[in-house]
């Protein structure tokens, strides 16, 4: 029989630690003196002192091997929203999260911090200063978000102070920063194809974009404040830059910083939404014979043309959260890091 290693409070595991957010989390944890194990289906980098366990989180035995002696687990693994694979989203985010919870309980893990998403309450219509008590979306914007809702419910319901297993969920929104594989690369690709000329709507919709280091700060604060008597047990927390910005100003600042023209012609929101819907239906209809990936999906149009910003008052009150990096500095650092995506002179 394998000997069980006693959990140490500074020993943690980051499931999804090879990803964009996960790697920043690992780097910050190491700087703060934690001993870190990464569990991921791929190994993307090496850091002295960090142990990598390559495996699928749906495999409980593989997880158990990585969770030996671990008292704190960060779960930030998910298939990318753009992969558009319903069965994979369900297998990893729902069934896989159940497996993670079982493995944590069997391995004697005491705390788990889940990376959820603020979009669990968003239905494609305006949210202004949304609080955590908004109901979960009845019609989530996509299947990825539907599985993020189920995942968050599972993790928060598993919180059990009597059994000594505490959980909390962090809901970031629009994470950006150096090494982000999603937001800036998609934006630049769209601009290079000449499709970033138009502003959808009046350009005055406010949105949260959150610098990755602030998201990490929220996760670590949550882990350190999560105790049996604390208000964090079984709760969700928005973590944002607390500086809502006009969606199109943010996009323009990144584009201009990288040498591209900002969008300037206005198009009515409803018109673009209906066009995106028609295109989407056409893509679905043609899917058996032709695989197309349109830039303007109804989901992206909704995100580009509505207000969606969230209050982080609860995180400020319960865990003393304050963003560490301003939006201005976050954008400057991000633009600087994407030299390879700059427009050729
Ligand atoms: N990027 C955003 O804007 C954003 C916003 C809100 C919430 N989130 C959430 O934050 C988390 C991290 O997102 P990210 O942007 O860093 O994504 P990412 O794709 O860079 O990282 C996800 C990691 O999970 C790993 N993974 C996927 N399936 C796995 C499996 N079956 N077993 C083990 N590992 C697996 C991947 O290999 C990857 O390293 C996700 O849960 C995501 O839903 C992201
Ligand atoms: C072609 C365009 C009009 C704009 C191109 C930029 C978009 C690719 C991004 C702008 C807002 C982003 C966003 C997400 C994906 C990329 C964008 C649409 C998420 C849906 C990714 C998943 C997260 O969970 C969501 C969250 O709650 O933070 C993101 C919301 C913003």
TrEMBL record:
Pfam families: 3Beta_HSD. GO terms for biological process: cholesterol biosynthetic process. The keyword Acetylation applies. The chain crosses the membrane at residues 271-290. One of its GO terms (cellular component) is lipid droplet. It is a single-pass membrane protein. It comes from the Eukaryota. Belongs to the 3-beta-HSD family. This is Sterol-4-alpha-carboxylate 3-dehydrogenase, decarboxylating. It comes from Albula glossodonta.
């Amino acid at each position: 029989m394998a000997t069980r290693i006693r959990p140490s409070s500074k020993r943690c595991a980051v499931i999804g630690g090879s990803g964009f957010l996960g790697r920043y989390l690992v780097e910050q944890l190491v700087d703060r003196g934690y001993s870190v194990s990464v569990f991921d289906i791929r190994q993307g980098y090496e850091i002295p002192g960090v142990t990598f366990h390559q495996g699928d989180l749906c495999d409980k035995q593989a997880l158990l091997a990585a969770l030996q002696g671990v008292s704190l687990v960060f779960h930030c693994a998910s298939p990318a929203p753009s992969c558009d694979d319903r069965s994979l989203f369900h297998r990893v985010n729902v069934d896989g999260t159940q497996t993670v919870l079982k493995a944590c309980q069997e391995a004697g893990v005491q705390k788990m911090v889940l990376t959820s998403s603020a979009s669990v309450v968003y239905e494609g219509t305006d949210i202004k200063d949304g609080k955590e008590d908004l109901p979960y979306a009845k019609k989530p914007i996509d299947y990825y978000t539907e599985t993020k809702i189920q995942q968050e419910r599972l993790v928060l319901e598993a919180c059990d102070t009597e059994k000594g297993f505490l959980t909390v969920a962090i809901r970031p929104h629009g994470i950006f920063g150096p090494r982000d594989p999603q937001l800036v690369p998609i934006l630049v690709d769209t601009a290079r194809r000449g499709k970033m000329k138009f502003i959808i709507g009046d350009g005055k919709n406010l949105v949260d974009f959150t610098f990755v280091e602030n998201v990490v700060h929220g996760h670590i604060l949550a882990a350190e404040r999560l105790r049996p008597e604390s208000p964090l047990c079984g709760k969700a927390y928005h973590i944002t830059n607390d500086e809502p910005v006009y969606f199109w100003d943010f996009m323009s600042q990144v584009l201009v910083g990288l040498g591209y023209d900002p969008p300037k012609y206005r198009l009515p929101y409803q018109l673009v939404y209906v066009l995106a819907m028609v295109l989407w239906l056409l893509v679905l209809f043609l899917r058996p014979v032709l695989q197309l990936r349109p830039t303007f999906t109804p989901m992206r149009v909704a995100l580009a043309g509505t207000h969606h910003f969230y209050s982080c008052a609860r995180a400020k009150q319960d865990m003393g959260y304050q963003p560490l990096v301003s939006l201005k500095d976050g954008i400057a650092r991000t633009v600087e890091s994407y030299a390879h995506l700059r427009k050729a002179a």
